[in-house]
Specification:
about 25% strand
Length: about 650
Protein backbone atom coordinates (compact mmCIF):
# COMPACT_ATOMS: atom_id res chain seq x y z
CA UNK A 1 0.00 0.00 0.00
CA UNK A 2 2.96 2.32 0.60
CA UNK A 3 3.82 1.95 -3.09
CA UNK A 4 0.32 3.13 -4.02
CA UNK A 5 0.36 6.18 -1.74
CA UNK A 6 3.98 7.02 -2.59
CA UNK A 7 3.13 6.91 -6.30
CA UNK A 8 0.06 9.11 -5.88
CA UNK A 9 2.13 11.57 -3.75
CA UNK A 10 5.07 11.62 -6.14
CA UNK A 11 5.52 15.31 -6.98
CA UNK A 12 5.50 15.17 -10.84
CA UNK A 13 2.72 12.55 -10.98
CA UNK A 14 0.69 14.30 -8.27
CA UNK A 15 0.97 17.59 -10.18
CA UNK A 16 -0.25 15.84 -13.34
CA UNK A 17 -3.22 14.34 -11.43
CA UNK A 18 -4.08 17.79 -10.08
CA UNK A 19 -4.38 19.05 -13.67
CA UNK A 20 -7.00 16.47 -14.58
CA UNK A 21 -10.61 17.70 -14.84
CA UNK A 22 -11.75 14.41 -13.27
CA UNK A 23 -11.74 13.89 -9.51
CA UNK A 24 -9.29 11.18 -8.42
CA UNK A 25 -9.64 9.58 -4.96
CA UNK A 26 -7.92 6.68 -3.24
CA UNK A 27 -9.67 4.95 -0.34
CA UNK A 28 -7.84 2.34 1.74
CA UNK A 29 -9.90 -0.53 3.14
CA UNK A 30 -10.40 -0.59 6.95
CA UNK A 31 -10.87 -4.13 8.20
CA UNK A 32 -11.97 -5.52 11.56
CA UNK A 33 -10.12 -8.27 13.42
CA UNK A 34 -11.79 -10.92 11.23
CA UNK A 35 -10.61 -9.27 8.01
CA UNK A 36 -14.03 -7.93 6.99
CA UNK A 37 -14.08 -4.46 5.46
CA UNK A 38 -16.02 -2.13 7.76
CA UNK A 39 -15.11 1.24 6.29
CA UNK A 40 -12.75 3.03 3.94
CA UNK A 41 -10.13 5.63 4.86
CA UNK A 42 -9.41 8.62 2.61
CA UNK A 43 -5.72 8.46 1.65
CA UNK A 44 -5.45 10.73 -1.41
CA UNK A 45 -7.50 13.08 -3.55
CA UNK A 46 -6.59 15.57 -6.27
CA UNK A 47 -7.72 19.17 -6.61
CA UNK A 48 -10.62 18.39 -8.98
CA UNK A 49 -12.18 16.16 -6.30
CA UNK A 50 -12.62 19.17 -4.02
CA UNK A 51 -15.42 20.43 -6.31
CA UNK A 52 -17.22 17.09 -5.82
CA UNK A 53 -17.19 17.38 -2.02
CA UNK A 54 -18.61 20.65 -0.65
CA UNK A 55 -19.81 21.14 2.91
CA UNK A 56 -22.12 18.04 3.14
CA UNK A 57 -19.08 15.77 2.91
CA UNK A 58 -15.89 15.75 4.97
CA UNK A 59 -12.81 15.26 2.80
CA UNK A 60 -9.77 15.60 5.06
CA UNK A 61 -7.01 13.05 4.54
CA UNK A 62 -7.23 10.19 7.02
CA UNK A 63 -10.99 10.54 7.52
CA UNK A 64 -13.35 7.58 7.22
CA UNK A 65 -15.90 7.31 4.45
CA UNK A 66 -18.84 6.42 6.72
CA UNK A 67 -17.34 6.91 10.16
CA UNK A 68 -16.96 10.67 9.60
CA UNK A 69 -20.04 11.12 7.36
CA UNK A 70 -22.83 9.29 9.22
CA UNK A 71 -25.32 12.01 8.35
CA UNK A 72 -24.77 11.17 4.66
CA UNK A 73 -25.00 7.39 5.10
CA UNK A 74 -28.10 7.10 2.88
CA UNK A 75 -26.06 8.42 -0.06
CA UNK A 76 -22.63 6.99 0.77
CA UNK A 77 -23.87 3.56 1.93
CA UNK A 78 -24.46 2.16 -1.60
CA UNK A 79 -21.06 3.46 -2.74
CA UNK A 80 -19.45 1.86 0.31
CA UNK A 81 -20.98 -1.53 -0.54
CA UNK A 82 -19.87 -1.21 -4.14
CA UNK A 83 -16.29 -0.38 -3.08
CA UNK A 84 -16.26 -3.47 -0.87
CA UNK A 85 -17.32 -5.58 -3.87
CA UNK A 86 -14.59 -4.05 -6.03
CA UNK A 87 -11.88 -4.79 -3.43
CA UNK A 88 -13.14 -8.33 -2.76
CA UNK A 89 -13.69 -9.36 -6.40
CA UNK A 90 -11.13 -7.21 -8.16
CA UNK A 91 -13.75 -6.31 -10.78
CA UNK A 92 -13.96 -2.69 -11.88
CA UNK A 93 -17.30 -0.97 -11.25
CA UNK A 94 -18.80 1.88 -13.26
CA UNK A 95 -22.09 3.63 -12.78
CA UNK A 96 -23.85 6.98 -13.10
CA UNK A 97 -25.80 8.44 -10.21
CA UNK A 98 -27.46 11.67 -9.14
CA UNK A 99 -26.23 13.29 -5.92
CA UNK A 100 -28.93 15.53 -4.36
CA UNK A 101 -26.36 17.21 -2.08
CA UNK A 102 -24.34 18.32 -5.09
CA UNK A 103 -27.34 18.71 -7.40
CA UNK A 104 -25.23 17.00 -10.02
CA UNK A 105 -25.03 13.86 -12.11
CA UNK A 106 -21.78 12.00 -11.47
CA UNK A 107 -20.06 9.30 -13.50
CA UNK A 108 -18.03 7.05 -11.17
CA UNK A 109 -15.45 4.41 -11.95
CA UNK A 110 -13.93 2.31 -9.14
CA UNK A 111 -10.92 0.06 -9.61
CA UNK A 112 -9.13 -2.09 -7.04
CA UNK A 113 -5.62 -0.91 -6.17
CA UNK A 114 -3.75 -2.77 -3.46
CA UNK A 115 -6.06 -3.19 -0.46
CA UNK A 116 -8.15 -0.24 -1.48
CA UNK A 117 -10.06 1.35 -4.31
CA UNK A 118 -9.01 4.05 -6.78
CA UNK A 119 -12.02 6.11 -7.79
CA UNK A 120 -12.37 8.58 -10.63
CA UNK A 121 -15.37 10.89 -10.73
CA UNK A 122 -16.58 13.12 -13.49
CA UNK A 123 -19.36 15.72 -13.35
CA UNK A 124 -21.48 14.91 -16.41
CA UNK A 125 -24.33 17.17 -15.42
CA UNK A 126 -24.04 19.31 -18.56
CA UNK A 127 -23.70 16.32 -20.88
CA UNK A 128 -26.47 14.45 -19.06
CA UNK A 129 -28.80 17.39 -19.34
CA UNK A 130 -27.87 17.90 -22.99
CA UNK A 131 -28.62 14.24 -23.66
CA UNK A 132 -31.99 14.55 -21.93
CA UNK A 133 -32.79 17.64 -23.95
CA UNK A 134 -31.79 15.92 -27.19
CA UNK A 135 -34.08 13.01 -26.32
CA UNK A 136 -36.92 15.41 -25.70
CA UNK A 137 -36.28 16.98 -29.10
CA UNK A 138 -36.83 13.62 -30.74
CA UNK A 139 -40.08 13.13 -28.84
CA UNK A 140 -41.27 16.58 -29.81
CA UNK A 141 -40.90 15.67 -33.47
CA UNK A 142 -43.81 13.28 -32.87
CA UNK A 143 -45.75 15.60 -30.60
CA UNK A 144 -45.06 19.18 -31.59
CA UNK A 145 -47.56 20.78 -29.29
CA UNK A 146 -46.56 18.79 -26.19
CA UNK A 147 -44.98 20.81 -23.42
CA UNK A 148 -41.21 20.89 -24.03
CA UNK A 149 -38.05 22.62 -22.99
CA UNK A 150 -37.16 22.78 -26.68
CA UNK A 151 -38.57 25.47 -28.88
CA UNK A 152 -40.69 23.98 -31.68
CA UNK A 153 -42.03 25.84 -34.69
CA UNK A 154 -43.88 24.61 -37.76
CA UNK A 155 -43.30 26.82 -40.76
CA UNK A 156 -45.53 26.93 -43.85
CA UNK A 157 -43.93 28.12 -47.09
CA UNK A 158 -45.13 31.36 -48.69
CA UNK A 159 -44.58 31.22 -52.45
CA UNK A 160 -44.85 33.76 -55.23
CA UNK A 161 -46.75 33.24 -58.47
CA UNK A 162 -43.86 31.21 -59.90
CA UNK A 163 -43.81 28.86 -56.89
CA UNK A 164 -40.61 30.22 -55.41
CA UNK A 165 -40.47 30.33 -51.61
CA UNK A 166 -40.26 33.96 -50.56
CA UNK A 167 -41.03 33.63 -46.82
CA UNK A 168 -42.38 31.30 -44.13
CA UNK A 169 -45.51 31.67 -42.05
CA UNK A 170 -45.64 30.59 -38.40
CA UNK A 171 -48.16 27.78 -38.60
CA UNK A 172 -47.68 26.25 -35.14
CA UNK A 173 -45.34 26.89 -32.23
CA UNK A 174 -45.03 25.84 -28.62
CA UNK A 175 -44.73 28.10 -25.62
CA UNK A 176 -40.99 27.58 -25.33
CA UNK A 177 -40.41 28.94 -28.83
CA UNK A 178 -42.80 31.80 -28.27
CA UNK A 179 -41.17 32.76 -24.98
CA UNK A 180 -37.64 32.51 -26.40
CA UNK A 181 -38.44 34.71 -29.36
CA UNK A 182 -40.39 37.16 -27.22
CA UNK A 183 -37.54 37.54 -24.74
CA UNK A 184 -34.79 37.86 -27.37
CA UNK A 185 -36.57 39.76 -30.15
CA UNK A 186 -39.16 41.59 -28.11
CA UNK A 187 -42.09 40.66 -30.42
CA UNK A 188 -44.79 38.02 -30.27
CA UNK A 189 -44.63 35.62 -33.21
CA UNK A 190 -48.39 35.43 -33.59
CA UNK A 191 -49.49 36.58 -37.08
CA UNK A 192 -45.90 37.14 -38.16
CA UNK A 193 -43.65 35.61 -40.76
CA UNK A 194 -40.07 34.40 -40.47
CA UNK A 195 -38.58 37.43 -42.24
CA UNK A 196 -40.61 39.89 -40.18
CA UNK A 197 -39.20 38.38 -36.98
CA UNK A 198 -35.73 37.48 -38.30
CA UNK A 199 -35.03 39.86 -41.20
CA UNK A 200 -31.38 38.69 -41.27
CA UNK A 201 -32.34 35.04 -41.95
CA UNK A 202 -31.02 35.29 -45.51
CA UNK A 203 -27.67 36.53 -44.17
CA UNK A 204 -27.38 33.88 -41.43
CA UNK A 205 -28.30 31.15 -43.92
CA UNK A 206 -31.29 29.84 -41.96
CA UNK A 207 -33.83 30.87 -44.62
CA UNK A 208 -31.87 28.91 -47.22
CA UNK A 209 -31.80 25.83 -44.94
CA UNK A 210 -35.58 25.95 -44.36
CA UNK A 211 -36.23 26.33 -48.10
CA UNK A 212 -33.87 23.48 -49.02
CA UNK A 213 -35.44 21.06 -46.52
CA UNK A 214 -38.92 22.04 -47.73
CA UNK A 215 -37.98 21.51 -51.38
CA UNK A 216 -35.80 18.37 -51.03
CA UNK A 217 -37.29 16.67 -47.98
CA UNK A 218 -33.80 16.08 -46.55
CA UNK A 219 -33.66 16.75 -42.82
CA UNK A 220 -30.93 18.95 -41.34
CA UNK A 221 -29.38 19.08 -37.85
CA UNK A 222 -26.99 21.94 -37.16
CA UNK A 223 -25.53 24.19 -34.51
CA UNK A 224 -26.02 27.78 -35.50
CA UNK A 225 -24.98 31.13 -34.08
CA UNK A 226 -27.39 34.05 -34.24
CA UNK A 227 -25.33 37.25 -33.86
CA UNK A 228 -28.38 39.47 -33.48
CA UNK A 229 -29.24 37.79 -30.16
CA UNK A 230 -25.70 36.51 -29.36
CA UNK A 231 -26.99 32.97 -28.93
CA UNK A 232 -26.01 29.49 -30.09
CA UNK A 233 -28.84 27.07 -30.96
CA UNK A 234 -28.93 23.37 -31.63
CA UNK A 235 -31.42 23.23 -34.52
CA UNK A 236 -33.19 20.27 -36.14
CA UNK A 237 -35.16 20.85 -39.40
CA UNK A 238 -37.46 18.27 -41.02
CA UNK A 239 -39.95 18.55 -43.91
CA UNK A 240 -43.63 18.73 -42.97
CA UNK A 241 -46.19 19.21 -45.74
CA UNK A 242 -45.27 22.33 -47.70
CA UNK A 243 -42.98 23.61 -45.07
CA UNK A 244 -40.82 22.33 -42.25
CA UNK A 245 -40.82 21.65 -38.53
CA UNK A 246 -37.97 23.25 -36.60
CA UNK A 247 -36.92 22.32 -33.08
CA UNK A 248 -34.22 24.29 -31.33
CA UNK A 249 -32.56 24.69 -27.98
CA UNK A 250 -30.22 27.30 -26.55
CA UNK A 251 -26.76 25.67 -26.22
CA UNK A 252 -24.84 28.83 -25.43
CA UNK A 253 -23.79 27.57 -21.99
CA UNK A 254 -22.78 24.22 -23.42
CA UNK A 255 -20.69 25.98 -26.07
CA UNK A 256 -19.11 28.10 -23.40
CA UNK A 257 -18.33 25.01 -21.34
CA UNK A 258 -16.91 23.30 -24.43
CA UNK A 259 -14.69 26.29 -25.15
CA UNK A 260 -13.53 26.30 -21.55
CA UNK A 261 -12.74 22.58 -21.78
CA UNK A 262 -10.77 23.19 -24.97
CA UNK A 263 -8.94 26.08 -23.34
CA UNK A 264 -8.21 23.89 -20.33
CA UNK A 265 -6.89 21.11 -22.55
CA UNK A 266 -4.68 23.63 -24.35
CA UNK A 267 -3.51 24.99 -21.01
CA UNK A 268 -2.62 21.49 -19.78
CA UNK A 269 -0.77 20.80 -23.03
CA UNK A 270 1.26 24.00 -22.70
CA UNK A 271 1.88 23.29 -19.02
CA UNK A 272 3.18 19.80 -19.78
CA UNK A 273 5.38 21.19 -22.54
CA UNK A 274 6.82 23.62 -20.00
CA UNK A 275 7.70 20.81 -17.62
CA UNK A 276 11.34 19.84 -17.11
CA UNK A 277 10.18 16.23 -16.84
CA UNK A 278 9.73 14.21 -19.99
CA UNK A 279 6.18 12.83 -20.20
CA UNK A 280 5.27 10.02 -22.56
CA UNK A 281 2.01 8.10 -22.96
CA UNK A 282 2.54 4.54 -24.19
CA UNK A 283 0.31 1.77 -25.53
CA UNK A 284 1.46 -1.88 -25.51
CA UNK A 285 2.14 -3.69 -28.78
CA UNK A 286 1.66 -7.44 -28.45
CA UNK A 287 2.37 -10.43 -30.65
CA UNK A 288 1.29 -13.97 -29.82
CA UNK A 289 0.24 -12.76 -26.41
CA UNK A 290 3.66 -11.28 -25.60
CA UNK A 291 4.69 -7.64 -25.22
CA UNK A 292 6.87 -6.77 -28.20
CA UNK A 293 7.05 -2.96 -27.98
CA UNK A 294 5.42 0.16 -26.57
CA UNK A 295 3.93 2.61 -29.06
CA UNK A 296 4.23 6.31 -28.18
CA UNK A 297 0.84 8.04 -28.20
CA UNK A 298 1.97 11.47 -26.99
CA UNK A 299 5.12 13.18 -25.77
CA UNK A 300 5.78 16.61 -24.29
CA UNK A 301 8.54 18.99 -25.31
CA UNK A 302 11.06 17.65 -22.76
CA UNK A 303 10.59 14.13 -24.16
CA UNK A 304 11.14 15.39 -27.72
CA UNK A 305 14.41 17.00 -26.63
CA UNK A 306 15.52 13.76 -24.95
CA UNK A 307 14.74 11.67 -28.04
CA UNK A 308 16.18 14.45 -30.25
CA UNK A 309 13.11 14.26 -32.49
CA UNK A 310 10.04 16.45 -32.96
CA UNK A 311 6.45 15.48 -32.17
CA UNK A 312 5.67 14.00 -35.60
CA UNK A 313 8.82 11.87 -35.47
CA UNK A 314 8.04 10.54 -31.98
CA UNK A 315 4.29 9.86 -31.93
CA UNK A 316 3.40 6.48 -33.36
CA UNK A 317 6.93 5.10 -33.09
CA UNK A 318 7.97 2.19 -30.89
CA UNK A 319 9.96 2.83 -27.72
CA UNK A 320 12.46 0.06 -28.52
CA UNK A 321 12.96 1.60 -31.93
CA UNK A 322 13.59 5.10 -30.56
CA UNK A 323 15.43 4.16 -27.38
CA UNK A 324 16.71 0.56 -27.33
CA UNK A 325 18.89 1.49 -24.32
CA UNK A 326 15.76 1.15 -22.16
CA UNK A 327 16.39 -2.62 -22.09
CA UNK A 328 19.96 -2.30 -20.77
CA UNK A 329 18.87 0.28 -18.19
CA UNK A 330 16.22 -2.06 -16.81
CA UNK A 331 13.36 0.23 -17.83
CA UNK A 332 11.77 -2.28 -20.18
CA UNK A 333 11.47 -4.81 -17.34
CA UNK A 334 9.87 -2.15 -15.11
CA UNK A 335 7.34 -1.22 -17.83
CA UNK A 336 6.39 -4.88 -18.24
CA UNK A 337 5.85 -5.17 -14.47
CA UNK A 338 3.72 -2.02 -14.32
CA UNK A 339 1.49 -3.28 -17.15
CA UNK A 340 1.19 -6.68 -15.48
CA UNK A 341 0.64 -5.61 -11.87
CA UNK A 342 -1.21 -2.34 -12.71
CA UNK A 343 0.79 -0.58 -10.00
CA UNK A 344 3.06 2.42 -10.41
CA UNK A 345 6.81 2.08 -9.97
CA UNK A 346 9.75 4.47 -9.78
CA UNK A 347 13.46 3.79 -10.30
CA UNK A 348 16.74 5.57 -10.87
CA UNK A 349 18.15 4.01 -14.01
CA UNK A 350 21.85 4.13 -14.90
CA UNK A 351 23.66 3.69 -18.21
CA UNK A 352 27.40 3.93 -18.88
CA UNK A 353 28.95 3.98 -22.32
CA UNK A 354 32.43 4.63 -23.65
CA UNK A 355 31.50 8.28 -24.20
CA UNK A 356 29.44 9.20 -21.14
CA UNK A 357 27.25 8.06 -18.27
CA UNK A 358 23.56 8.76 -17.74
CA UNK A 359 21.16 8.68 -14.79
CA UNK A 360 17.40 8.94 -15.26
CA UNK A 361 14.74 9.26 -12.56
CA UNK A 362 11.82 7.36 -14.12
CA UNK A 363 8.22 6.87 -12.92
CA UNK A 364 5.74 4.61 -14.73
CA UNK A 365 2.01 4.65 -13.93
CA UNK A 366 -0.70 2.42 -15.42
CA UNK A 367 -3.23 4.31 -17.54
CA UNK A 368 -6.93 3.53 -17.83
CA UNK A 369 -7.21 0.72 -20.31
CA UNK A 370 -4.00 -1.10 -21.16
CA UNK A 371 -1.38 1.62 -21.36
CA UNK A 372 0.92 3.57 -19.10
CA UNK A 373 2.29 7.07 -18.57
CA UNK A 374 6.03 7.51 -18.09
CA UNK A 375 7.62 10.54 -16.46
CA UNK A 376 11.39 10.93 -16.49
CA UNK A 377 14.10 13.50 -15.87
CA UNK A 378 17.83 13.49 -16.48
CA UNK A 379 19.55 13.56 -13.06
CA UNK A 380 23.09 12.91 -14.31
CA UNK A 381 24.53 16.22 -13.12
CA UNK A 382 22.84 15.86 -9.73
CA UNK A 383 24.24 12.35 -9.30
CA UNK A 384 27.71 13.51 -10.26
CA UNK A 385 27.42 16.38 -7.77
CA UNK A 386 26.24 13.97 -5.04
CA UNK A 387 29.16 11.68 -5.75
CA UNK A 388 31.58 14.61 -5.60
CA UNK A 389 29.93 15.90 -2.41
CA UNK A 390 30.19 12.47 -0.84
CA UNK A 391 33.89 12.37 -1.57
CA UNK A 392 34.37 15.84 -0.07
CA UNK A 393 32.38 14.85 3.04
CA UNK A 394 34.55 11.77 3.54
CA UNK A 395 37.70 13.86 3.19
CA UNK A 396 36.29 16.48 5.59
CA UNK A 397 35.36 13.82 8.13
CA UNK A 398 38.84 12.38 7.91
CA UNK A 399 40.35 15.84 8.42
CA UNK A 400 38.05 16.54 11.38
CA UNK A 401 38.94 13.23 12.98
CA UNK A 402 42.64 14.05 12.60
CA UNK A 403 42.09 17.50 14.11
CA UNK A 404 40.08 16.07 17.01
CA UNK A 405 42.79 13.50 17.70
CA UNK A 406 45.47 16.17 17.47
CA UNK A 407 43.60 18.49 19.87
CA UNK A 408 43.05 15.70 22.39
CA UNK A 409 46.62 14.42 22.28
CA UNK A 410 48.06 17.94 22.30
CA UNK A 411 45.99 18.91 25.31
CA UNK A 412 47.13 15.83 27.23
CA UNK A 413 50.77 16.31 26.22
CA UNK A 414 50.64 19.93 27.40
CA UNK A 415 49.68 18.84 30.89
CA UNK A 416 53.01 17.13 31.63
CA UNK A 417 55.34 20.10 30.96
CA UNK A 418 52.94 22.35 32.90
CA UNK A 419 53.08 20.02 35.88
CA UNK A 420 56.90 20.18 35.72
CA UNK A 421 56.80 23.98 35.55
CA UNK A 422 54.55 24.07 38.65
CA UNK A 423 56.67 21.45 40.42
CA UNK A 424 60.01 23.17 39.76
CA UNK A 425 58.43 26.50 40.65
CA UNK A 426 57.40 25.08 44.03
CA UNK A 427 60.95 23.73 44.54
CA UNK A 428 62.50 27.10 43.71
CA UNK A 429 60.14 28.92 46.06
CA UNK A 430 60.59 26.45 48.92
CA UNK A 431 64.36 25.74 48.67
CA UNK A 432 65.76 29.02 47.38
CA UNK A 433 63.44 31.63 48.87
CA UNK A 434 66.26 33.37 50.72
CA UNK A 435 68.48 33.44 47.65
CA UNK A 436 65.77 34.70 45.29
CA UNK A 437 64.62 37.53 47.46
CA UNK A 438 61.28 39.33 47.27
CA UNK A 439 61.62 40.19 43.58
CA UNK A 440 62.45 36.60 42.59
CA UNK A 441 59.63 35.19 44.72
CA UNK A 442 57.18 37.54 42.97
CA UNK A 443 58.38 36.28 39.58
CA UNK A 444 57.96 32.67 40.77
CA UNK A 445 54.42 33.47 41.93
CA UNK A 446 53.54 35.02 38.57
CA UNK A 447 54.97 32.01 36.73
CA UNK A 448 52.93 29.66 38.96
CA UNK A 449 49.77 31.71 38.43
CA UNK A 450 50.20 31.59 34.64
CA UNK A 451 50.80 27.84 34.77
CA UNK A 452 47.67 27.30 36.85
CA UNK A 453 45.63 29.37 34.37
CA UNK A 454 47.07 27.29 31.54
CA UNK A 455 46.05 24.08 33.33
CA UNK A 456 42.50 25.38 33.77
CA UNK A 457 42.37 26.41 30.12
CA UNK A 458 43.55 22.96 28.98
CA UNK A 459 41.00 21.32 31.29
CA UNK A 460 38.20 23.46 29.83
CA UNK A 461 39.40 22.73 26.29
CA UNK A 462 39.29 19.01 27.03
CA UNK A 463 35.76 19.41 28.42
CA UNK A 464 34.66 21.30 25.29
CA UNK A 465 36.29 18.69 23.03
CA UNK A 466 34.50 15.91 24.90
CA UNK A 467 31.13 17.63 24.52
CA UNK A 468 31.73 18.52 20.87
CA UNK A 469 32.51 14.91 20.01
CA UNK A 470 30.05 13.19 22.34
CA UNK A 471 28.43 10.09 20.83
CA UNK A 472 26.86 8.46 23.93
CA UNK A 473 23.33 7.09 23.69
CA UNK A 474 20.59 9.22 25.24
CA UNK A 475 18.58 8.10 28.27
CA UNK A 476 15.75 9.50 30.36
CA UNK A 477 17.25 12.15 32.68
CA UNK A 478 15.37 13.55 35.70
CA UNK A 479 16.49 17.20 35.78
CA UNK A 480 15.17 17.65 39.34
CA UNK A 481 17.68 15.10 40.65
CA UNK A 482 20.47 16.29 38.35
CA UNK A 483 20.14 19.97 39.37
CA UNK A 484 20.00 18.97 43.03
CA UNK A 485 23.31 17.15 42.61
CA UNK A 486 24.87 20.17 40.86
CA UNK A 487 23.72 22.48 43.68
CA UNK A 488 25.21 20.07 46.20
CA UNK A 489 28.55 20.17 44.34
CA UNK A 490 28.47 23.99 44.48
CA UNK A 491 27.58 24.07 48.19
CA UNK A 492 30.81 25.75 49.33
CA UNK A 493 30.49 28.54 46.75
CA UNK A 494 26.82 29.02 47.63
CA UNK A 495 27.62 29.27 51.36
CA UNK A 496 30.55 31.60 50.71
CA UNK A 497 28.37 33.90 48.57
CA UNK A 498 25.39 33.48 50.93
CA UNK A 499 23.47 32.91 47.68
CA UNK A 500 19.78 32.08 47.40
CA UNK A 501 18.80 29.35 44.87
CA UNK A 502 15.16 28.64 43.95
CA UNK A 503 14.29 25.63 41.80
CA UNK A 504 10.84 24.92 40.39
CA UNK A 505 9.52 21.60 39.10
CA UNK A 506 11.76 20.41 36.25
CA UNK A 507 10.93 17.84 33.55
CA UNK A 508 12.45 14.49 32.69
CA UNK A 509 14.16 14.76 29.29
CA UNK A 510 15.83 12.43 26.83
CA UNK A 511 19.53 13.20 26.84
CA UNK A 512 23.07 12.60 28.06
CA UNK A 513 23.41 12.92 31.85
CA UNK A 514 27.06 14.03 31.79
CA UNK A 515 26.47 16.75 29.21
CA UNK A 516 23.33 18.07 30.91
CA UNK A 517 25.26 18.19 34.21
CA UNK A 518 27.88 20.40 32.52
CA UNK A 519 25.12 22.62 31.14
CA UNK A 520 23.56 23.36 34.55
CA UNK A 521 26.97 23.44 36.29
CA UNK A 522 28.10 26.28 34.00
CA UNK A 523 24.81 28.24 34.03
CA UNK A 524 24.44 28.13 37.84
CA UNK A 525 28.17 28.86 38.35
CA UNK A 526 27.86 31.89 36.07
CA UNK A 527 24.92 33.17 38.09
CA UNK A 528 27.01 32.90 41.26
CA UNK A 529 30.28 34.18 39.76
CA UNK A 530 28.96 37.29 38.01
CA UNK A 531 27.19 38.68 41.07
CA UNK A 532 27.11 42.25 42.30
CA UNK A 533 29.22 43.04 45.37
CA UNK A 534 26.41 44.77 47.24
CA UNK A 535 23.59 42.38 46.38
CA UNK A 536 22.93 38.85 47.69
CA UNK A 537 23.12 36.51 44.66
CA UNK A 538 19.75 35.03 43.66
CA UNK A 539 19.48 32.26 41.04
CA UNK A 540 16.12 30.86 39.94
CA UNK A 541 15.51 27.81 37.72
CA UNK A 542 12.05 27.11 36.29
CA UNK A 543 10.52 25.18 33.39
CA UNK A 544 7.33 24.93 31.32
CA UNK A 545 6.08 23.57 27.99
CA UNK A 546 5.87 25.77 24.87
CA UNK A 547 5.37 25.53 21.11
CA UNK A 548 8.09 26.72 18.77
CA UNK A 549 6.01 29.69 17.60
CA UNK A 550 5.70 30.97 21.20
CA UNK A 551 9.45 31.52 21.62
CA UNK A 552 10.63 34.96 20.53
CA UNK A 553 13.71 37.13 20.90
CA UNK A 554 13.60 40.34 22.93
CA UNK A 555 12.85 42.26 19.72
CA UNK A 556 9.75 40.10 19.09
CA UNK A 557 11.10 38.04 16.18
CA UNK A 558 10.78 34.26 16.16
CA UNK A 559 13.77 32.41 17.59
CA UNK A 560 12.95 29.12 15.85
CA UNK A 561 12.45 28.48 12.11
CA UNK A 562 8.92 28.26 10.72
CA UNK A 563 9.27 24.49 10.23
CA UNK A 564 9.37 24.07 14.04
CA UNK A 565 6.45 26.39 14.77
CA UNK A 566 4.23 23.54 16.02
CA UNK A 567 6.99 21.47 17.68
CA UNK A 568 6.77 21.04 21.45
CA UNK A 569 9.70 22.05 23.71
CA UNK A 570 10.67 22.04 27.37
CA UNK A 571 11.54 25.68 28.12
CA UNK A 572 14.07 25.82 30.98
CA UNK A 573 15.02 29.30 32.26
CA UNK A 574 17.96 30.14 34.51
CA UNK A 575 17.65 33.68 35.92
CA UNK A 576 20.05 35.63 38.12
CA UNK A 577 20.28 39.13 39.61
CA UNK A 578 23.96 39.63 38.82
CA UNK A 579 25.84 42.18 36.76
CA UNK A 580 24.04 41.20 33.55
CA UNK A 581 25.30 42.32 30.15
CA UNK A 582 24.35 44.51 27.21
CA UNK A 583 21.94 42.68 24.86
CA UNK A 584 24.15 43.46 21.87
CA UNK A 585 26.60 40.83 23.23
CA UNK A 586 23.93 38.10 23.53
CA UNK A 587 25.42 36.05 20.67
CA UNK A 588 29.07 36.86 21.35
CA UNK A 589 29.10 35.36 24.87
CA UNK A 590 28.62 31.85 23.44
CA UNK A 591 31.74 32.10 21.27
CA UNK A 592 34.87 30.22 22.32
CA UNK A 593 37.28 32.28 24.54
CA UNK A 594 34.97 35.32 24.48
CA UNK A 595 34.96 37.40 27.69
CA UNK A 596 33.08 40.60 28.48
CA UNK A 597 35.22 41.36 31.55
CA UNK A 598 38.92 41.37 32.38
CA UNK A 599 40.56 38.43 34.18
CA UNK A 600 41.25 40.69 37.16
CA UNK A 601 37.51 41.30 37.56
CA UNK A 602 36.25 37.73 37.08
CA UNK A 603 38.23 34.52 36.67
CA UNK A 604 37.55 32.06 33.85
CA UNK A 605 38.63 30.97 30.38
CA UNK A 606 35.61 32.03 28.32
CA UNK A 607 34.79 28.42 27.40
CA UNK A 608 31.92 27.66 29.80
CA UNK A 609 29.08 29.12 27.74
CA UNK A 610 30.55 27.58 24.56
CA UNK A 611 30.19 24.20 26.29
CA UNK A 612 26.61 25.09 27.25
CA UNK A 613 25.73 25.95 23.66
CA UNK A 614 27.35 22.77 22.34
CA UNK A 615 25.38 20.63 24.85
CA UNK A 616 22.12 22.27 23.73
CA UNK A 617 22.99 21.68 20.06
CA UNK A 618 23.83 18.03 20.79
CA UNK A 619 20.31 17.68 22.21
CA UNK A 620 18.79 19.32 19.10
CA UNK A 621 17.69 22.28 21.15
CA UNK A 622 18.10 26.04 21.16
CA UNK A 623 19.48 28.59 23.63
CA UNK A 624 18.94 32.30 24.00
CA UNK A 625 20.49 34.82 26.38
CA UNK A 626 18.88 38.01 27.65
CA UNK A 627 20.91 40.59 29.53
CA UNK A 628 20.13 43.68 31.56
CA UNK A 629 23.21 45.63 32.73
CA UNK A 630 23.38 45.77 36.57
CA UNK A 631 20.05 43.93 36.80
CA UNK A 632 20.83 40.33 35.85
CA UNK A 633 20.59 37.87 33.02
CA UNK A 634 18.29 35.08 31.80
CA UNK A 635 19.34 32.01 29.86
CA UNK A 636 16.48 30.26 28.03
CA UNK A 637 17.14 26.63 27.01
CA UNK A 638 14.73 24.80 24.69
CA UNK A 639 14.91 20.99 24.63
CA UNK A 640 12.56 19.06 22.32
CA UNK A 641 9.91 17.01 24.08
CA UNK A 642 11.23 13.98 22.21
CA UNK A 643 14.71 14.23 20.72
CA UNK A 644 14.94 12.68 17.26
Amino acid sequence: MNMVTDSLSDLPFSDMLNLLPDGVVFHQAVRDETGIIVDFRLIYFNKAFESFAPSPYKRELGMYMLGDNREQEAILGPAMRQYVQVVETGEMATHVFYDPNLNATISLRARKMGDGVLVTLRDITVQHRAAQQAEMQNKLLHGILNTSLNGTVVYEAIRDSRGTIIDFRFRLYNQTARKDILERIGRDIADHTLLSIYPDSHITGMFGLYARVTETGESVRTEHYFPSVNTWYDVAIAKLDDGCVVTFIDISQLKKASRQAEDQAEFVSKLLDGSLNGLVSLDPVRGNGHLTDLRILSANRAAEVFFQRNQTEVVGRGLLELYPESVEMGLWTMFEQVLKARQAERVEAYLQTDKAELWLDVSATPRDGDGLVVSFINITERKKAERHTGTLIQELQKTNNNLEQFAYVASHDLQEPLRKVVSFGDMLRNQYADTLGANGADMINRMQSAAFRMQILIKDLLAYSHVANAREAFNEVDLNQLVAEVINDLELVILDKKANLVTGALPTVNGDTSQLRQLFQNLISNGLKFSRTDVVPHVQIMADLVRGREVTRPDGTNLLPESLANRGFHRIQVLDNGIGFDQQYAERIFQLFQRLHTRSQFTGTGIGLSIVQKVVENHQGFIRAEGRPNEGSTFVVLLPIKTL
